[in-house]
Design brief:
142 residues; mainly alpha; 8 helices; 59% helix
């Protein structure tokens, strides 16, 4: 039964089979949307994905590794094939989780979203990128 109080991404996750890493990415998105972008923890992601923390650590040694992999996965247009019917932009959520953790993580997708590396202006560019991702979120159905 579909629970209308759960985020759209969480409702869609239960309706399809995912590879373990995709399940962890989707779980991290759910945690971010439910608890806040700065409140994503490995424990919460493992719990949401229904695996042990050791199982999560088998795939990602640290939270930063998880976030970097999420950014790459969601920035790749080919990965969007399994996201039909989801109203939240998972790349935007992943970018905001990255910005909450460490803005340097945004360099992971800098070539895909055209962040310019210009010394002191780099942090401003990263923050502008996070802001643009924040504007892409559609949270009306959460």
């Amino acid at each position: 039964m579909i629970d209308p109080s759960r985020p759209a991404i969480a409702r869609n996750v239960s309706a399809r089979r995912l590879e373990p890493k995709e399940r962890l990415f989707d779980a991290a998105i759910c945690v971010a949307l439910e608890n806040g972008f700065g409140k994503v923890t490995l424990d919460a992601v493992a719990r949401q994905a229904g695996i042990s923390k050791g199982g999560l650590l088998h795939h990602f040694a640290t939270k930063k590794h998880l976030i970097r992999a999420m950014l790459v996965h969601y920035a790749d247009a080919a990965s969007d094939r399994h996201l039909q019917g989801i109203e939240v932009d998972p790349l935007a959520v992943a970018a905001l989780v990255a910005a909450a953790e460490d803005t340097l993580l945004l360099e992971t997708i800098s070539t895909k979203v055209d962040i310019q590396k210009s010394g002191a202006g780099q942090r401003a560019a990263q923050l502008a990128l996070a802001s643009s991702f924040a504007s892409r979120l559609s949270l009306r159905d959460l």
